[in-house]
Each structure stands twice: as structure tokens, then as C-alpha cells.
Design a protein that fits this description.
297 residues, alpha/beta, serine acetyltransferase, domain 1, UDP N-Acetylglucosamine Acyltransferase, domain 1, 5-stranded parallel beta sheet, 8 helices, 14 strands
Length: 297
């Protein structure tokens, strides 16, 4: 019996190896120059330790001063981030024919610029945490929010990914936000611009598209879509404004869909649950669904 199985396995191996030889995109093999998603996830969690040192410390590090601990974390993250950036920059047509030394120099420059943004990212995270605590009567304390709220985690990852996106880093920002998406059910494209005091309540099923712009003090509930009216144009729509602009002090309740790059939701607007909006809403407006009929058999 074992000989039969071995023969069958060998035949299957030959079958699949022959399939690899068809020279399609999916047949490409480059074992020594592949991006490592596990390293990128590790970078996210180590950056979280840097952002919130009093909440997420590394138990493996036995250091006695904040300076030593931070130095070890930064060295670790910088080394791994630069290494991954070197790999992904080779996807950029601007570096297609560049010498590897030039790519390394650019990766180091990008990495350094990103780390200089950390105080700003932390400033925004402080406002987000404040918005979560002020906006959720179910929050027992801020510690509970930091340790358990998926919305804060998704926003933190987006703030990291957005800065890398602005610095022109391919692939890595999207891998970061899709990891947060898989963990939280919250899908925020790294290109989306998020203002201060951003609050995502519950969060599951939220989609925020690439060219979305969100102002300050915005509150979004589960199931909200900030999307495009149509993506049938495919790649021809690249870099065009396809997603809505949400101005300051807007609340969007669960299940609402707001679509289109020309759609602007004015400041202090309240969007009721399950609303479907494809045109701009003036400032100060309350939008709700009228005369929904409930039937019971």
C-alpha cells in the first residue's frame, strides 16, 4: 500500500511541476527576494510598543531604562522595516534599473522619515483614545479601550500604513491594513486620510476606501461603507477621487453607505442607520430613512 501511495505522490509532483512551467504570473518563483508578512506583522506590534510603552512591553527585554528599551526596539524595527522596503521598492518602476546600493539608500531614507513621524502619530492616537472614551458610555476606562477595542487597533495600523503610503512605499501599507482588517473586520485603505479624534464604535463590517477624506471628531458605527459609486472602470480609475469626503463632527450610524468621490458630507451632519447616500449633504443636516414598514407574521 505504501508503495502505491509513493507512486501516486510522485506522479502528482510531476504533474504540478509541469504546471509550474507555463510561464504565467502565478508560476513566478523568487525565494530569496520575497516580502515577509510575518515580519510586517511583527513590526506592527513592536511599533505599538513604541507608541504605547506603558501598555505593551516586551517581556524578553530586561532593560532598566526607557532609553535602552526604546533603542533596542527602534534598532530592531528599523532593520526589519528597511529590509522589507528594499524588497518592495523593486516593484516600483522608478527603481527598476537602479543599482541595489541606491535602493538601500532610499529604503534607509524612507525608514528614517517614517520614524520621525512617530511623535505625530502618537499625538493623533491620544486624540483617538480620548474620542473612544468620551463617545462610548460602555467603556469602563481607557485601559480597557487600549487592550480590547478593535477600532483603536485598526486606526493605529492605518495611521502607520498611511505615513508609509505617503512616503511612496509599495505593498507594505496594504499588507498592514489588510492584516488589521482580518483581525478586526474593519477595512481601511492606507490611502484614506483620517482626522483627529476619530471614533469607530463596534467596527465590524466598516469599509473606508482609498481616497476617502475624514475630518476631525468623526464617529462611525458598524457596517458603514465609505465607498466608490462604481469600480467598473478598473485601472483607469487609479488615482482619481472615488470615495467621499466627511467633514468635521459627523456621526454615521450603522449600515449607512456613502458613495462617490464628489460626495461631501458637511460638518455636524448626522447620518441615520441604513441610509444610502450618493450626493452631498449640507452642513448641520440630519438624514434618516422615513416610513420603514415592519411586518410580523
Amino acid at each position: 500500500m505504501s508503495e502505491v501511495i509513493e507512486t501516486e505522490i510522485n506522479e502528482l509532483v510531476d504533474l504540478i511541476l509541469d504546471d509550474y512551467k507555463k510561464d504565467r504570473f502565478i508560476d513566478r518563483v523568487n525565494n530569496f527576494n520575497q516580502i515577509d508578512k510575518d515580519i510586517i506583522k511583527d513590526i506592527i506590534y513592536k511599533l505599538r510598543q513604541i507608541f504605547l510603552p506603558g501598555f505593551f512591553s516586551n517581556k524578553k527585554y530586561h532593560t532598566y531604562t526607557a532609553k535602552n528599551n526604546l533603542s533596542m526596539l527602534l534598532e530592531d524595527v528599523m532593520y526589519n522595516l528597511e529590509k522589507q522596503i528594499v524588497i518592495v521598492l523593486q516593484y516600483d518602476t522608478n527603481f527598476k534599473d537602479s543599482h541595489i546600493e541606491n535602493i538601500y539608500e532610499e529604503a534607509h531614507r524612507i525608514s528614517l522619515e517614517f520614524f520621525k513621524k512617530i511623535p505625530m502619530i502618537r499625538e493623533y492616537l491620544e486624540t483617538d483614545l480620548e474620542a473612544f472614551y468620551d463617545g462610548d458610555p460602555a467603556a469602563y476606562c481607557k485601559d480597557e479601550i487600549v487592550f480590547s477595542y478593535p477600532g483603536l487597533f485598526a486606526i493605529m495600523v492605518n495611521r502607520v500604513a498611511h505615513e508609509l503610503h505617503l512616503l511612496g512605499v509599495p505593498l507594505i501599507p496594504r499588507i498592514m491594513t489588510e492584516y488589521a482588517h482580518s483581525r478586526t473586520g474593519i477595512d481601511i485603505h492606507p490611502g484614506a486620510k483620517l482626522g483627529k479624534y476619530f471614533f469607530i464604535d463596534h467596527g465590524t463590517g466598516i469599509v473606508i476606501g482609498e481616497t476617502t477624506e475624514i475630518g476631525n471628531n468623526v464617529k462611525i458605527y458598524q457596517g458603514v461603507t465609505l465607498g466608490a459609486l462604481s469600480t467598473r472602470g478598473g485601472q483607469s480609475l487609479k488615482s482619481k477621487k472615488r470615495h467621499p469626503t466627511i467633514e468635521d463632527n459627523v456621526t454615521i450610524y450603522s449600515g449607512a453607505s456613502i458613495l462617490g468621490g464628489d460626495t461631501v458630507i458637511g460638518h455636524d451632519v448626522v447620518i441615520g442607520g441604513n441610509a444610502f447616500i450618493t450626493k452631498s449633504i449640507p452642513a448641520g443636516t440630519k438624514v434618516s430613512i422615513k416610513q420603514q414598514e415592519l411586518k410580523m407574521n
